[in-house]
Design brief:
Number of domains: 1
Distance between the termini: 79 Å
Strand content: 5-15%
Largest sheet: 2 strands, antiparallel
Mean pLDDT: 82
Shape: elongated
Strand order of the largest sheet: 1-2
């Protein structure tokens, strides 16, 4: 069953009416009023560390151990680029009409 907003609102309203009909009451609280008792001091939770500092492992030691286990790889030489580039050159006949294309190295230019 898919719940829609309308069905959820109707369900909340029905439960509220049932609560009130069984003798329950709802108090109105003015805007800005706190629900906590302001006469008592607030309880502040304190974060406590239960471990002793002797049992801790420093992260720098762990990272150094990982680095020591890495396999040393040799860098490959970068590929050298061939400076000669090829391009297509059109061959023309005596009247200026193209006959064919020929691949030519740039050095021959």
């Amino acid at each position: 069953m898919k719940l829609s907003k309308k069905s959820i609102r109707e369900d909340i309203l029905a439960k509220t009416q049932e609560y009130l009909s069984n003798g329950g009451s709802i108090e109105k609280i003015s805007l800005g009023e706190s629900g906590q008792n302001t006469n008592e001091p607030r309880v502040r939770r304190v974060f406590e560390i239960e471990e002793s500092s002797e049992s801790k492992t420093f992260l720098t030691d762990v990272v150094a151990a990982f680095d020591a286990r890495k396999v040393k790889t040799t860098k490959t030489k970068p590929l050298t680029q061939n400076n000669s580039r090829r391009y297509k050159k059109l061959i023309y006949d005596d009247f200026g009409e193209p006959l064919r294309e020929v691949w030519v190295d740039e050095i021959d230019r």
